[in-house]
Specification:
Blueprint: E1 3-12, E2 22-26, E3 29-37, H1 54-70, E4 75-77, E5 83-84, H2 87-96, H3 98-108, E6 111-119, H4 134-163, E7 168-171, E8 178-187, H5 191-205, E9 210-215
Antiparallel strand pairs: 1-3, 1-4, 1-5, 2-3, 6-8, 6-9, 7-8
Length: 228
């Protein structure tokens, strides 16, 4: 068995027992780590579709540890699959990113990530060209293009309105059936207002606005810790 030190996250050096992973500490910071069998990562495909496959199991384990930390302390989740050579490498990582990590922990403390999606309306039925004139077809096409542009503008307005109620926000690349897929970093004391705004905007849109979360700040820890 080939072993390595798996790194889950960086947090404050004041966390209680995690019942498995442990902390490597340096001047107020702590790296959450556990010994891992590297053979578990061998042959895993990044696009593996199975929800119960080896990759999915590892990702859920990673998320479970990050969430356990997040229940008690601010957390900077590390990239999935971050494996270090040992404790010395962990200390080098903490020393190299010490000030940056402290600043990011201050930024995300007391805040949680929420995901929001707005889906496009179902595709309209294809036009029966034998049943409409050329002029009618062009008018229908303009109508559909206008409706699609209006929907896009409405989704952008949703994003702008929610961004004003968040500490930070980011839009993600999304599938063609989505008009908006975004994440928002929201103060816990402002979450009721944030969700009320989502309800208001959904009413204006006349369609559901999907919400996921709360999550640890996966989308808002932009410092790369794995290269130290």
């Amino acid at each position: 068995m080939s072993c390595g030190l798996y790194a889950y996250a960086i947090t404050r050096d004041r966390l209680a027992d995690l019942a498995g992973p442990w902390l490597i500490s340096y001047q107020g910071l702590a790296l959450v780590v556990a010994e891992v069998d590297l053979d578990r990562f061998t042959g895993i495909e990044a696009d593996e579709p199975a929800e119960d496959g080896p990759l999915a199991v590892l990702v859920r384990e990673h998320d479970a540890v990050v969430r356990a930390v997040f229940q008690h302390e601010p957390v900077l989740p590390l990239r999935f699959g971050t494996v270090l050579d040992g404790a010395d490498a962990a200390l080098r990582l903490l020393r190299a990113r010490h000030e940056e990590a402290l600043a990011w922990l201050d930024r995300v403390e007391g805040r949680r990530e929420w995901g929001v999606r707005v889906r496009a309306a179902a595709e309209p039925e294809p036009v029966d060209l034998d049943s409409v004139s050329g002029t009618g077809y062009l008018a229908l096409r303009r109508q559909r293009l206008t409706a699609a542009e209006d929907a896009r503008r409405s989704a952008e307005a949703v994003h702008q309105a929610l961004t004003r109620r968040a500490a930070d926000s980011t839009c993600r690349d999304h599938a063609s059936d989505l008009l908006l897929e975004a994440a928002y970093l929201v103060d816990t004391e402002n979450e009721d207002d944030f969700h009320a705004e989502i309800g208001r905007l959904a009413g204006e849109l006349g369609q559901p606005v999907e919400i996921t979360g709360p999550w640890p700040p996966y989308s808002f820890t932009n410092v790369e810790f794995a290269d130290a």
